[in-house]
Amino acid sequence: MIAHPPSNHTFRALAVSALSWAALVFFSAGCGDSGASVGSEPVAATDIATAAPTTTDAPEATTPDSTPVTTDNSEASTGDDPVLPVTVTDETGAEVTVNSVKRIIPLDGDVAEVVFALGLGDNVVATDLSATFPPEADALPEIGYQRALSAETLAAFAPTVLLATDTAGPPEALDDMRRLGYPLIILPNESTPTGAGQKIRAVAAALGVPQRGARLADALDAAINEATAGPREPEDRPRVVALYVRGTAAQLVLGKSLNTHWLIDAAGGVDISESMGIGDTAPISAEAILAAAPDVILVPRAGLESVGGVEGLVEIGGLGQTPAGLNRQVLAYDDQLLLGNGPRTAQMLAALRDDLASVTPATAGNQNGSEEES
User: Among 44-58, 98-112, 266-280, 298-312, which stretch is predicted with the lowest mean pLDDT?
Assistant: First the structure.
């Protein structure tokens, strides 16, 4: 078993679970209410037209070594300071103009992490419950959960730009923000080795700092390539099942359309969801799990904690009778790190590669790796 003690953001991760287990990034349905804004009193959507974004320029931002692609803006950034206004075409095909990056709201955790990595974290005024890294993002006022947003709560923060992926919702809340004049950009969110770099470039383009994004994305792409496991014979690749669990409320196998699939493959393992015919998610089936015989169970850390640790996990759906369960071969990583496909993806891949390298298929679990520290 590879799992460290709970980190200081475990409570927030578990809060995400409790509020919206059925509406996480993996699900098509939303749930619950959005939570309340912190530090501002929400106002009715009909009263907030005057709170629409201003056109003031963004302040100068300090930058780490990072940044993305150019946009159709004629004043494309040639340096590190945001160059605005900028117009981008988002994933829905909408053209969106951003006049200011003074008050940024990322609508999910991995996008928040990208904004901070681009050196614009001081401009972020609120985040959703899934934003647990960096600590500065975790400490900000909350807008609720990305799948259960409220236009009232969002508008109370008077954002100058909102950044989202296709996980954000409900659609009515997003439409309300657009109608009120707030720039809302839907970003690419591919679960592929190049998906993190694409997301970074798109965020940076929207914020007027394409060169920062290009540096960060190029470095990340290279690091992912470097972290990818070398060729292994099929019989030497451990069979891995990736799970999403939240107590008894949600117990699912993650499928080949999700981020865990390419990570397992690139780390030198075999994702058994493909042979099980799971594209998105499916309930854990004892019969199917036993037949697939995984050598390793891969799970987000907060999910593992929600079922009482490894001993609780192996009581679910036949897992205890698999090679992974019998050997207690469980790999648990920080939720945002494992599921987000953000700036730390190369670190996640390297940690998983090293942990899987210590597993002998069919007799897995007598050797231990070490979990990546987030």
Answer: 44-58
| Residue 163 included in any domain | yes
Same domain, 259 and 348: yes
Eight-class DSSP state of 229: P
Q: Is 218 exposed, middle or buried (0-12, 13-18, 19+ CB in 10 A)?
A: middle
Confidence at residue 1, expressed as pLDDT on a 0 to 100 scale: 53
Same domain assignment for residues 251 and 211: no
Q: For residues 185 and 205, is the Cβ–Cβ distance under 8 A?
A: no
Q: Does some domain include residue 11?
A: no
Structural domain harbouring 263? 230-357
Which value, in Å, is the radius of gyration of the alpha carbons in the chain?
A: 21
With b meaning 16 or more CB within 10 Å and e meaning fewer, what string describes 171-208? eebbebbeebebbbbbbbbebebebbbbbbbbbbbbbb
Residues paired with residue 298 on neighbouring β-strands, in sequence order: 242, 331
From the CB of residue 256, how many other CB atoms can be counted at a distance below 10 Å?
20
For residue 136, give both structure tokens: 């500065």
**Is residue 170 reached through a cis peptide bond, with omega within 30 degrees of 0 on the bond before it?**
yes
Partners of 239 in beta bridges: 270
Q: How many domains does the chain have?
A: 2
Are 276 and 282 contacting, i.e. CB atoms less than 8 angstroms apart? Answer: yes
**Is the domain of 139 the same as that of 184?**
yes
pLDDT digits (tens, 9 = 90+) for 288-316: 999 999 999 999 999 999 999 999 999 99
Do you know the residue count of the chain? 374
CATH of the domain at 305: 3.40.50.1980
Boundary (domain end) residue, out of 223, 242, 269:
223
Q: Does 219 share its domain with 248? A: no
Q: How far is CA 182 from CA 102, 213, 312, 322, in A?
A: 13, 23, 45, 51
pTM exceeds cut of 0.85: no
Question: For residue 17, is it within any domain?
Answer: no
- Same domain membership, residue 266 and residue 214: no
Residue 70 — very low, low, confident or very high, per pLDDT cuts 50/70/90? Answer: very low
Same domain, 92 and 160: yes
Q: What is the pLDDT of residues 134-186, one digit of tens each?
A: 999 999 999 999 999 999 999 999 999 999 999 999 999 999 999 999 999 99
